[in-house]
Structure formats: structure tokens, C-alpha cells
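Bit of a strange request maybe. I'm writing a small parser for C-alpha cell strings and I need a real example to test against, not something I typed by hand. Could someone generate the C-alpha cells for this chain?
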Amino acid sequence: MRIIPAIDIIDGKCVRLSQGDYNKKTIYNEDPLEVAKEFEANGIKYLHLVDLDGAKSAHVVNYKILERIASKTGLQVDFGGGVKTDQDIQIVFESGAAQVTGGSIAVKDPELFEKWIDTYGSDKIILGADAMNGMIATHGWLESSELEVVEFITQWYFKGINSIICTDIAKDGMLAGPSYDLYDKILQINSRPATSNIDHQLKLIASGGVATADDLYRLKEQGCEGAIVGKAFYEGKISFKELRAFV
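Reply from user aminoacidic:
Good idea to test on real output. This should exercise your parser:
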């Protein structure tokens, strides 16, 4: 299982929110590049970079930070937040992202999101499925929808999506453990009779709630392809020594 640290950006700074609340913001470092370099120095190869300003503004804002991290580290960066147009996704890839995560766009403009899968390939596009009470939330978690999360993921699986990041918003930043039950339901998509003729397995990247190294081992055992870890690093709940041992 891949370990994917998260760096969330507001006003150019590395922050974390609690349950997606922009009013519950903690600044951990003024320079996201410094944080990214520390992850890389400890054996990490991947990074989940979230433009929270972009998510709120509905267009990419912090692409210069992506550019700095991509050019000054060897990390493979997946970038999300505010990617809403062809111009946005072009800017993000030109700034050095290895992958783009689309969440709100898959809800609000599914035709465009499907076009991106066809244009860039399913290995370059990740579906962001952010869940609140089992339903999809959008626009930096500020809006809810009528879409049930497992069926939403299933629909995009049929349309060619390989990888999804699923965040249970109620768990995010709370250090209370991941949403194991929800992830079980999502992973069962791979064994549904209706999906037996699909030639790829759904890769689930768990996000939200990771508090200890034990959570990582349990997610791996559960069958997750990756786990995003944020606050547990920044609050010292998971040490770099534990991280290196897992990697």
C-alpha cells in the first residue's frame, strides 16, 4: 500500500482543516516545499497536494506551489482543488502534476470529466469521492449532493476510472480512525457480478481519520491501494521512523 502524505494549501501555506471547516484551520508550515522535501528525505515517493483556495474559488489558484514542489523534489504529485476547466487541468499538468484528482467536476460536469479520462488516460485522472453521511459533497465540502457515494463510484468505475480517493468528511482531521465500513462497501464493487467483465480493478485510496501506524496496517490488510495521511504526521501521532518501517 502506498503512503501518500497530504499538503493542503491556503494562502500559500501548509494547513489542515478539521472536518473540512475553513474556520478550523491550523497552519503547520509557511513553506509547503520545505514540508515536501522532508517527506521525500524520509523515503516517501508520493504527495497529495490540495489547493483549498482553488476548491473554494472554483478555479486553480496555487499552481506555482505545485510547480516548485514538482521541480525541486522527485515526488509524484497528485493535485486537486479548483480543477474545473480544460485550462485548469492543462495548467496543473504543465506545472508538473503526475495526476489530477477531480471531485466536484465529476458531479457538476460529468461530460467534461469523462472527456479528461479519454484525453489524458485513466492513469492520470483520479476520482475524488468526498462523503458526508454517505452522500457526495462538493466544492471544498461546502455543498452536499443527492448522490450516494458507493453508487457514484460504481458509475465512474464503469466509465473507466481506475483510482479513487474517498474521504469521509466526518473523519477528516479528527484523528479518530478511518471509515473502515465505508471502504469495505467500496472495495466490494470489485466483486459485484455486474463488474466481472471489467478488465481493471478499482484502486481505493483511503483518506481521513488515520491516527496511528496501526491504522495504516489495517487499511493495507483491508485491500486499500493507498492511504493519505495528514494531521497524524503534523501532530506527531505517526513518526517518520514508523513511516519508514511501513514503507
